[in-house]
Amino acid sequence: MSAAAPPGAHPSGPASTPRLGLRRFTAADLPEVMALHRDPRVRALLVDDHALEQPALAMRFLQGLQAVYHRHPGLGIWRAERRRPADAAALAAAEAEVAAGELAPEALDWLRRGDAAFAGWFSLMPMSAQPGRVEIGCRLLPAAWGTGLVLEGGTALIEHAFGTLALPELWAACHPGHRPVQAVLRTLGFEPAGHAAYEGQADAAHFHLAAPRWQALRTQPLRQRQRAAVRALAGRHSWPGADPQLPAAGRAGELADDVQHLTHPRRATAAQPRHPGPTP
Description:
Elements: E1 20-24, H1 30-38, H2 40-43, H3 55-71, E2 76-84, H4 88-99, H5 105-112, E3 115-126, E4 134-140, H6 149-164, E5 169-174, H7 179-187, E6 191-197, E7 203-210, H8 211-217, H9 222-236, H10 248-263
Antiparallel strand pairs: 1-2, 2-3, 3-4, 5-7, 6-7
Helix pairs in contact: 1-3, 4-5, 7-9, 7-10, 9-10
């Protein structure tokens, strides 16, 4: 399998969604990359932690990304921003003012764009320790946890990988104790592929997704896939600290609380997530 796009194809990256903007990083994004890595909650369970809160290392990282974009069309790490729609009442008032000739149409166009805030990144990167393999990744600020962006962005990247790039498979790796990420990966269709060192460093849980499996799962309701992921993890006692005295339903409920913080905060029961957001 080649990590590059098919011959003649030069896609820049996955498509943005109504709630999630994705674009290539530039040198101007240095402050945001540093701020992301200053948060200890983001870095708590990384398997490839680097000191990107330091200006020199962060700039070197951004410069290296430009080479990745050039050498591997369609792959890379993309800046993610959470988009918020314009206020409906303000938009209606502005439309009335434009109709009355009291407001320039350009101002209305600007208002319609809504607001956006840096949320972190999503990635499809060649695995240096496994030539030919491509891995999916995500690193989000705590403010973006529980918004559903991780599943929305993950779906966009998978569609890009199997559709635009025509890759036959994807891989993922995360901390063995990061149970919410494991649930998210399973929700997206990934299957466990054992534990092994990641990039020659820490032990990691590895996951695999083949294109035919995604095609079979992509039309299933998201809630159905989430429930199946939680049940699978709860039944395996697959996280440190799981209470072996709890019945399977109790373990599933404990795990579901963590997963809900990543996807639907209004339905979560605890005040704060036990683990940081998805940062494979």
